[in-house]
Amino acid sequence: MTTFIGRKKFYMICVALFGVSSALCGIAPSLPILVFCRILQGIGGGGLAPSEQAILADTFPPEKRGQAFAMYGLAVVCAPAIGPTLGGYITDNFDWRWIFFLNVPICLLSLFLTSRIVEDPPWVEKQVKESQKGGIKLDFLGFGLLGLTFGSLEFILDKGQEDDWFSSPLITFFAVAMVIAFVVMIWWELRQLRVGQRPIINLTLFKRPNFAISFVLMFVLGFSLYGTTVLIPQFVQTLLGYTAELAGLVLSPAGLMMMAMMPVVGILSGKVDPRKLMGYGFGMLTLSLILMHTMDLGISYGRLVFLRCFQASGLAFLFIPINTIAYIGVKQTENNDVSGLTNLARNIGGSCGTAFVATLLTRRTATHETNMIRNLTTGNQAFVNQVKHLKEIFGGHGGGNPMVGDAAHTAQAYIYNQMHRQAGMLAYLDIIQYLSIFCACMLPLLFFIPKPPAHLDPGAGH
Fold first, then answer.
1. DSSP string, 421-462
2. Dihedral sign computed on CA atoms, order 143, 148, 153, 159
3. pLDDT of residue 2
4. Which helix (H) or strand (E) holds 208?
5. Which residues contact 374 (CB under 8 A, 6 or more apart)?
6. 168 inside domain
7. Are residues 232 and 318 in the same domain?
8. CATH number of domain containing 381
9. Is 223:356 a contact under the CB 8 Å cutoff?
């Protein structure tokens, strides 16, 4: 659509749709209507990040692009910095609907500033004029296949754990539909390239090792970032008894850490090989997850904040270098394709990370409970002694006391509750362990990225 109506108009349409749908979410009278309005919100929001990154890539010369992405990164990480705390505060003290209403004035401000400041570059204006003369030639079949592929994937990830994955005929149906749509989409997009048509997805970008590896790294970044962003609040609320607001306060300092580190990374990106920055980032991310594996049920709020901030210090060294590497050797006309695919990788990675955490948490908790409950029998003297001790605490001292039976049940319920919490704790540690291994496996990929040219000049490919 950007080639037919222009990038600026497309961006403003997305902002307007996001603002209107946010207002509709806030006044939605029922869950089905809320879900429909959220879909509209996702359609509007889906076009924002790719357009923003493409605008930055065209506005700034290659040698300043890292600093531009750093400033953009400040805005991106501002949401996780204040969002959880603000959302928790609104939920605890007001009405959840205000979470959506807050988007409306921000969208109005964005529309005003965009109309006054942002302009399409000459090559985009030329492309728009040529497209309007020949009429709109959107790859409708490719767009439909793309929507079916990732729509099915999102449905599977969202409902998989709830419906026990492939034991559900509906999940199996969407899985088959996703695979078929994906295969046909690849065939169709390659055919479009062969006949000289513009495909909805530019698969030729994956011929460049720097872009292909950047795509994978961005997926892992989204996977680990969103996965741990879901993991930590759920951990502190379900096992430590934190409120939604206090859980948000665990995450917010990490967002501030990323905001503080972004300008530093922006400066370094113009002086240091981005492969080294990414190596440092994934190394720190892996180390932070290893340290998080030492958590227990007695962990303090300060320790949680430190671990999350330590993790954020590594994440800050990934966002900018990955984006910088992805644009190397790319033509100006392909900037939209690069930004769209990198954001797709991050979003799909986030969805997969969230589903991974939800699924593994349920299954590993059940596994640990099964292993632990084998010891909660009358044949285990330690268990018998613990029940006897707790029974005395809860008021059952033997003799003719009628409270003996109730005290025994209370003691056993207390032990089971503690066992459930310990099983949950072990499940969280398992997830963190798998995430650390996943991130560590990304380090060898950095050696396959070609050495960037001097000053990271993508103009070599123009």
1. HHHHHHHHHHHHHHHHHHHHTTGGGGGGSPPPPGGG-GGGG-
2. positive
3. 60
4. none
5. none
6. yes
7. yes
8. 1.20.1250.20
9. yes
Any domain includes 59 = no
Distances (CA, A) of 46 to 60, 114, 348, 450: 23, 17, 12, 31
294 and 442 together in one domain: yes
CA angle 200, 205, 207 (to 5 degrees): 135
Residues 343 and 453 in one domain: yes
* Of the candidates 31, 45, 27, the residue with the CA atom closest to the CA atom of residue 95: 27
State whether 222 and 340 are in the same domain.
yes
Range of the domain at 224: 209-462
Tokens of 170: 């509906």
Please indicate, yes or no, whether residues 214 and 194 belong to a single structural domain of this protein: no
Domain end point (choices 153, 170, 199): 199
CA distances from 116 to 43, 52, 109, 119, 122 (A): 24, 16, 11, 8, 17
Cα distance between residue 324 and residue 341, in whole Å: 14
Which H/E stretch holds residue 106?
helix 103-117
What pLDDT, on a 0 to 100 scale, did the predictor assign at position 119?
Answer: 76
Residues 177 and 223 in one domain: no
Among 174, 199, 224, the domain-final residue is 199
For 278, phi and psi rounded to 5 degrees? Answer: -65, -35
Place of tokens 């692009």: 65
CA distance 394 to 396: 6
CB 188 within 8 A of CB 145: yes
pLDDT at residue number 125:
66
| 26, 80, 208, 332, 390 from 413: Cα distances, Å | 41, 38, 59, 65, 10
Beta-carbon count within 10 A of 129 CB: 10
Specify whether the CB–CB gap between 321 and 277 falls below 8 A. yes
Number of domains in the chain: 2
How buried is residue 65: exposed, middle or buried, by Cβ count under 10 Å (0-12/13-18/19+)? buried
Q: Mapping DSSP to helix (H, G, I), strand (E, B) and coil, where does residue 174 land?
A: helix
Same domain (yes/no): 157, 294: no
Q: So what's the pLDDT on residue 286?
A: 92
Instruction: Decide: residue 91, CB within 10 A, 0-12 exposed, 13-18 middle, 19+ buried.
Output: middle
Domain-embedded: residue 101: no
Counting every residue, how long is the chain?
462
Which amino acid does the sequence have at 132? Q
Q: Is 458 exposed, middle or buried (0-12, 13-18, 19+ CB in 10 A)?
A: buried
pLDDT < 50 regions, the chain: 398-404, 457-462
Residue type, 373: I
Residue 123 falls inside a structural domain: no
Q: Which two tokens stand for residue 363?
A: 């299954």
169 and 290 housed in the same domain: no
Please tell me the predicted confidence (pLDDT) of residue 459.
38
Q: Please tell me the pTM assigned to this model.
A: 0.74
